[in-house]
Specification:
Elements (H helix, E strand, L loop, with lengths): L5 H10 L6 E5 L5 H12 L5 E5 L3 H14 L6 E4 L5 H10 L1 E5 L1 H9 L10 E4 L10 H12 L4 E6 L11 H9 L4 E4 L4 H7 L5 E7 L3 H24 L17 H10 L8 H22 L2 H16 L17 H12 L2 E3 L19 H10 L8 H8 L9 E3 L5 H23 L8 E8 L2 H12 L12 H22 L26 H12 L18 H4 L7 H13 L4 H4 L3 H11 L6 H5 L8 E5 L4 H9 L1 E6 L4 H13 L6 E7 L3 H25 L18 E2 L11 E2 L5 E5 L7 H7 L3 E5 L6 E2 L4 E7 H10 L1 H12 L2 E7 L11 H4 L20 H4 L4 H11 L4 E5 L2 H11 L8 H6 L14 H8 L9 H7 L3 H6 L2 H8 L1 H11 L1 H8 L1
Parallel strand pairs: 1-6, 1-7, 2-4, 2-5, 3-4, 5-6, 8-14, 11-12, 11-13, 13-14, 17-18, 20-21, 21-22
Antiparallel strand pairs: 9-10, 15-16, 17-19, 19-20
Helix pairs in contact: 2-3, 5-6, 6-28, 9-11, 9-13, 10-11, 18-21, 25-26, 39-40
Length: about 1000
C-alpha cells in the first residue's frame, strides 16, 4: 500500500477539489505518480468519466498496476488503443470510470461526438510542459470548454527546466490549458523540506579518481569541445550564442538549443557550421561513454568515428571532415584510448642459424637468453612466467594486452564485500532477522548498457585477483570479440581475387619446421620442455618465427592508431575464422547447460535465491523506481552513477519506512564531467524553480471569454454578386472544412478550429483537406514531400485529385521557426571569383558531379506541374499561414459535403468485398499501378484477375490511368514480348 507523506497530503488537499482546475509543478523524484494515482482513486466512480491524457504506454501500465494495488480493480484504468473500434469506444465512454486515451483518438471522438463531452467529469493531463498553442492538448481543451464549463482539468509536470525558455512560458501553458491556479513545489519548499529532513538515510559518499589515461582523454575531449564551441560562435556572430558554454554542453538539451538558434538560418549556414553542430553532440557522447563504456568498447566506438569521418556511405572520401579530429587533442584521445586496450611492439629481429650456440638445457639463464634472441620476453620470476603462460593463442605476437578496467569496478567490488561483512556481523550480533527491509543489494546505473556491463563484471568477478584486474576474464572475452570484429572487417575489405597477406599465426603447439633450420639446442630444448611441462611454463614455440614483411618490422611512433589497427586486422584476416569464435565462453556455457541434466540440479541453477544473496542491477528510469524500492525493500543501495532524481526517491523511501535503516553508497568520479554534470543539474533545477516562482508572482492572469459571444456575423454567407445590391445572404451552415483522419498528427486542424472554422474529421481517399466542393488540398511537409517524390505516391495523389476535383491544390508547408526555403548551400553555391583568361578552362572529359547527381526537389516540382497543369502549388511558411490561406480560399464559395467527399474515390457500396476471394485481391494488390486506394475500383471494373490480364493496353489505361496502366500492362505481358522476339 502506498504511504502518503505529509507534503503529499498537503498537495492533495489543495488540488483534489473537483470544482477547481489546477496546474501542479513538482520536483522530480518526490512521488508525482503517487499523487496522481491517489487523485484518480478519489475520483474513481461509475457515475464519473475521468480521462487521462498524454501518458506513454509505460506510464499507462505502471499507473494501472498501482491503481490495482490501491484497490481500483473493477474495472480500474481502461486503456483506449487504436485497435479498439468506434462502437466499443462509445460504450466505454458511456459506462464511465477511469480511461486513458491518446490525444489523436480523443480529438476525433470529440469532433464526431462519439464521446459525450458535456458529461466528462474531468481531464487529467500529464507532461504539461509539452503543451503549446500547436499541440493537440490545447485543441482538446478548447473543445472541452466549449461544451463543458463545469468539468475540472488537472495538469501535472515534473520538468521545470522545460518551462523556462521563451517569453512568459508559464503563462502560455496556463493560457492554452485555460487554468488560473498553479502550485509549485520544489525540493526547498518548506513542507517538503520539513518532511524529508525528519529521517535521513545513512549516505556514504565515495569519490573515485580517474586513471591517468582516462584523465588525459577527459581533458582532451573538453579541450576539443571548447575549440568547437568557440569556432561555432566565431563563424556565426549574428546569432545569440553567448549563453552556450561547456557546462551547458554536458546536457542532452544542449543540442536542441543550438539547433533551435540556427534553424531560421539553417539554409544559409555552410556545411562547416552544420558539421560543428554535429561534432558538439558527438563530443558530449564521448564524455559519457568514457565513464560508462569499457576500454575496448570505447576504442571501437572511436574507430567507427574515424571511419565515418574519412569515408562516406558509398566509400568515397568525405569532403567536410570534423575539425576537432585534426587537432593534437584528438590525437591524444585516439592514442590513449588504444593504449588502454593493448600495446603493439615491433617483432625483434632473429639471428641466423649459424650464429646459434649449443646451450645446456638445465641452464635457466641460457634458456632466458635464447628466448630473448628469438623475440620472446623471458624472465626468471615466477609471476612473469605465469603471466606468459596465460597468453592466449588468438592474441598476435606483437600485441601486449593492457585491458584497463574502469576504476569504479574495483570500488563496487569493495563495497559489496563491505556489505557482505556488515550482514555477517549483524547476523552474528542479533539472531532475529530485521523486521523491515531485506538484505537485497540494489545497484543503480545510468543506462541499460551500464547495467549489463556491471552485471557481467559481477558475474565473472575474481576476488583473488589484485585490484585493477578483477574482471580480467571478462575483458579478455571482450578483446577476443573485438579481434574477431577486426578480422571480419579485414576480410570484407579484401578483394576477392587478392589473397590475404600471410603472417605467422600463433598456435598453442610449436609449429613444425624443416630439420635444417633448427639448431641442436632448440631440439633438445623442445624435448625437455615437453617432459617438464607439469612444472615449467608453456612456451608458444621454440622455432624461429616467420619473418613478417618489412613494413611491419619497423613501427613508426608517429603512425596513427588506425594504422596499428589495420595491421592487427590484416593479421587476423590470415587466421582461420574459428580461432576466435569456436571456443567462445558463451558457446561453452550453452554446450554445458545442454549436456547436463537440468532436472537433477534445478534448484542449483534455476532455483530462487535468498534475498541476502541477491544483487539487483537496474538502470534509472522514471517514477517506476519508486515502485521498485517499495517492492524490493532494500536496506543497501549502491548508486553506481549519480542521479539527482533517485537521491530524492531514496529520501521519500526512507521516510515512508520509518523503522528501516537504509545505507546508500554514492559513487562519483571526482573532478570530471560526471561530478560537474550532477552539480550543474542541481543548479539548473533550482534556478528554474526560482524563475517560475518569480513569474507566478508577477503574472497577469488571462480572462477566458465565450467564443460564441459577439459572432453574429459568423452565420452570414459571403457577398454574392447575383443578389441585387450585393446584399448579404444568411445561411445556417457554419463555415467548415473536411479533414482526413491521418492529418490529426499535424498541428493544422487545431489552428483551423482556432480560426473559427468547423473541423469535420473523415476518412478521405482523395486529398487531405476539402475546402469547397471544387477545392481539394493535399498537404505536404518538407520531409513528406521528398518521401512522396521518391516513392511516386505524389504522382498518384495528384492524378486522383485532377480526376475528381476542378481545383486540385498541392500545399507545401514549412515549419514556423525554420527556413522558408528549399535551397541548400550545395544547390545554391555560386562562384563569386572574377573570371580571368590567364588559365584556360579544362575540357570536360565526362559527366560532371552535377550531371550524376539525382534530380532536385525543384526539378521534380517542375515536372509535376508540366504533367498536371491544373494542379496549383501553394507555399506556406507555417501552419499559421496555412490557416489564413484556407480562410481566404473559402471566401465566396459554397461549403463542402462530407458524404460526397468520403464517397469520392472510394467504393460506394459498403458491402462490396463481402465474399471476395482474398487471395485474388492480394494478388491484384501486387500488380504495378494497383494501390490500396484504387484496388476496390479495379475490382468493381473487372470480375477476376484473368479478365484484367485479357484487356488490351487501352482498357487497362482506362481503369488505372495512363502511366499506371502502361506499367501494369507491360508487367502482365512481359513474357509474351520475349516469345515474340524469339
Amino acid at each position: 500500500m502506498t504511504i502518503l507523506l505529509p507534503f503529499h497530503k498537503s498537495i492533495l488537499e489543495e488540488i483534489h477539489d473537483p470544482a477547481t482546475s489546477d496546474l501542479l509543478i513538482l520536483a522530480r523524484g518526490l512521488g508525482l505518480r503517487r499523487i496522481i494515482c491517489t487523485l484518480m482513486q478519489i475520483y474513481d466512480s461509475k457515475q464519473s468519466l475521468i480521462l487521462l491524457l498524454n501518458a506513454s504506454p509505460e506510464e499507462e501500465t505502471a499507473i494501472g498496476d498501482e491503481l490495482g494495488i490501491m484497490g481500483c480493480r473493477r474495472p480500474g484504468l481502461r486503456i483506449v488503443g487504436y485497435e479498439m473500434g468506434k462502437r466499443d469506444r462509445q460504450d466505454l465512454y458511456k459506462n464511465g470510470g477511469l480511461i486513458s486515451v491518446t490525444s489523436r483518438i480523443l480529438i476525433v471522438d470529440m469532433l464526431q461526438s462519439d464521446i459525450p463531452t458535456e458529461l466528462i467529469t474531468g481531464i487529467i493531463i500529464l507532461h504539461a510542459e509539452k503543451v503549446t498553442a500547436l499541440s493537440l492538448e490545447a485543441f482538446i481543451v478548447r473543445l472541452y470548454r466549449e461544451k463543458n464549463k463545469a468539468g475540472f482539468l488537472k495538469a501535472f509536470s515534473d520538468q521545470p527546466e522545460h518551462i523556462t525558455s521563451g517569453m512568459s512560458p508559464l503563462k502560455n501553458i496556463m493560457k492554452e490549458l485555460q487554468l488560473r491556479r498553479v502550485h509549485i513545489y520544489p525540493r526547498f519548499h518548506e513542507d517538503v523540506k520539513n518532511t524529508l529532513e525528519a529521517r535521513k538515510a545513512d549516505v556514504i559518499e565515495l569519490y573515485q579518481h580517474l586513471t591517468e589515461p582516462m584523465e588525459a582523454i577527459h581533458h582532451a575531449i573538453v579541450q576539443c569541445m571548447t575549440v568547437t564551441l568557440s569556432e561555432l560562435k566565431r563563424s556565426n556572430k549574428t546569432l545569440e550564442l553567448d549563453d552556450l558554454n561547456i557546462e551547458s554542453a554536458y546536457f542532452r538539451s544542449f543540442d536542441a538549443v543550438v539547433r533551435r538558434q540556427l534553424d531560421p538560418v539553417w539554409h544559409k549556414v555552410g556545411p562547416r557550421t552544420k558539421q560543428l553542430v554535429g561534432d558538439l553532440a558527438t563530443l558530449r557522447r564521448l564524455l559519457t561513454y568514457l565513464l560508462s563504456y569499457d576500454a575496448l568498447a570505447f576504442h571501437a566506438y572511436l574507430e567507427t568515428l574515424v571511419a565515418s569521418n574519412t569515408t562516406t556511405a558509398t566509400g568515397a572520401a568525405k569532403q567536410h571532415q570534423s575539425p576537432w579530429m585534426l587537432t593534437d587533442a584528438a590525437n591524444i584521445i585516439f592514442s590513449t584510448a588504444k593504449r588502454r586496450c593493448y600495446v603493439l611492439t615491433a617483432p625483434k629481429p632473429t639471428t641466423s642459424v649459424s650464429e646459434r650456440q649449443v646451450i645446456d638445457v638445465d641452464d635457466e639463464d641460457a634458456w632466458a637468453a635464447l628466448d630473448e634472441v628469438h623475440g620472446i620476453m623471458g624472465s626468471n620470476s615466477k609471476d612473469n612466467g605465469k603471466q606468459e603462460e596465460k597468453k592466449k593463442p588468438w592474441i598476435p605476437d606483437n600485441m601486449s594486452p593492457v585491458l584497463e578496467e574502469l576504476p569504479k569496478w574495483d570500488l563496487l567490488a569493495d563495497v559489496l564485500q563491505e556489505i557482505e561483512e556488515e550482514l555477517m556481523r549483524q547476523e552474528a550480533v542479533s539472531t532475529r532477522p530485521p523486521t523491515r527491509g531485506t538484505n537485497t543489494v540494489l545497484v543503480m546505473t545510468s543506462s541499460p548498457r551500464s547495467s549489463t556491463l556491471v552485471s557481467e563484471f559481477l558475474g565473472e568477478l575474481d576476488d583473488t585477483a589484485p585490484k585493477g584486474s578483477r574482471g580480467r576474464s571478462m575483458m579478455e572475452r571482450k578483446l577476443r570479440r573485438y579481434l574477431y570484429w577486426k578480422g571480419e572487417n579485414a576480410r570484407q575489405k579484401q578483394p576477392r581475387h587478392q589473397q590475404p597477406p600471410q603472417f605467422s599465426a600463433p598456435q598453442p603447439q610449436p609449429p613444425s619446421q624443416p630439420d635444417g633450420e633448427i639448431s641442436e639446442a632448440l631440439k633438445r630444448k623442445d624435448k625437455t620442455r615437453q617432459e617438464r611441462s607439469a612444472n615449467r611454463r608453456r612456451v608458444r614455440g621454440g622455432a624461429p618465427m616467420a619473418v613478417a614483411p618489412s613494413k611491419l618490422a619497423v613501427v613508426d611512433p608517429k603512425v596513427e592508431s588506425r594504422d596499428d589497427a589495420n595491421d592487427i586486422a590484416a593479421f587476423l584476416a590470415s587466421q582461420p575464422s574459428d580461432l576466435l569464435v569456436s571456443s567462445d565462453a558463451d558457446a561453452l556455457l550453452l554446450e554445458t547447460l545442454l549436456s547436463s541434466e537440468a532436472e537433477m540440479d534445478y534448484d542449483t541453477h534455476y532455483g530462487l535465491l535468498a534475498p541476502s544473496q541477491m544483487v539487483v542491477v537496474r538502470a534509472y528510469t522514471d517514477d517506476t523506481d519508486d515502485q521498485i524500492l517499495a517492492e524490493l525493500q532494500p536496506r543497501f543501495i549502491v548508486m553506481f552513477e549519480p542521479n539527482l532524481d533517485f537521491v530524492r526517491r531514496i529520501e521519500v523511501y526512507r521516510n515512508s519506512n520509518p523503522g528501516m535503516g537504509v545505507r546508500v553508497y554514492f559513487m562519483v568520479y571526482q573532478l570530471c564531467c560526471e561530478e560537474h554534470k550532477y552539480l550543474a543539474g542541481l543548479r539548473r533545477e533550482k534556478e528554474s524553480f526560482e524563475k517560475l516562482i518569480k513569474e507566478r508572482g508577477s503574472m497577469l492572469l488571462p480572462i477566458f471569454e465565450d467564443k460564441h459571444v459577439g459572432k453574429s456575423d459568423a452565420v452570414i454567407k459571403t457577398i454574392s454578386t447575383r443578389l441585387a445590391g450585393g446584399r448579404k445572404e444568411l445561411s445556417t451552415v457554419a463555415s467548415q472544412v473536411i479533414v482526413d483522419m491521418r492529418e490529426f498528427r499535424s498541428t493544422l486542424p487545431s489552428l483551423l478550429h482556432a480560426s473559427g472554422l468547423l473541423v469535420i474529421p473523415a476518412t478521405l481517399t482523395v486529398g487531405d483537406y476539402i475546402l469547397t466542393p471544387d477545392i481539394c488540398v493535399e498537404r505536404k511537409s518538407i520531409p513528406d514531400l521528398v518521401a512522396s517524390f521518391n516513392s511516386g505516391r505524389l504522382y498518384t495523389q495528384c492524378e486522383l485529385m485532377s480526376v475528381h476535383y476542378k481545383q486540385p491544390v498541392l500545399l507545401i508547408e514549412f515549419e514556423e521557426n525554420k527556413a522558408f526555403s528549399l535551397e541548400t548551400v550545395a544547390e545554391s553555391a555560386k562562384s563569386y571569383i572574377k573570371p580571368t583568361n590567364k588559365y584556360p578552362p579544362k575540357k570536360s572529359t565526362g559527366p560532371t558531379d552535377s550531371d550524376r547527381a539525382p534530380p532536385s526537389v525543384q526539378s521534380k516540382l517542375v515536372l509535376l506541374t508540366l504533367h498536371f497543369p491544373r494542379v496549383r502549388i501553394i507555399w506556406s511558411s507555417s501552419p499559421y499561414g496555412t490557416a489564413d490561406i484556407f480562410n481566404d480560399l473559402k471566401a465566396n464559395a459554397f461549403e463542402p459535403d462530407p458524404n460526397r467527399a468520403i464517397a469520392i474515390g472510394a467504393e460506394e457500396d459498403p458491402e462490396a468485398g463481402a465474399g471476395i476471394n482474398a487471395a485474388a485481391e492480394e494478388l491484384l494488390r501486387c500488380l504495378p499501378g494497383v494501390t490500396a486506394k484504387n484496388v476496390k475500383y479495379v475490382m468493381n471494373k473487372v470480375g477476376s484477375v484473368r479478365e484484367l490480364c485479357e484487356l488490351d493496353r487501352k482498357g487497362v489505361q482506362g481503369i488505372l490511368g495512363v502511366e499506371p496502366g502502361n506499367a501494369c500492362y507491360d508487367f502482365m505481358h512481359r513474357g509474351e514480348r520475349k516469345k515474340g522476339a524469339l
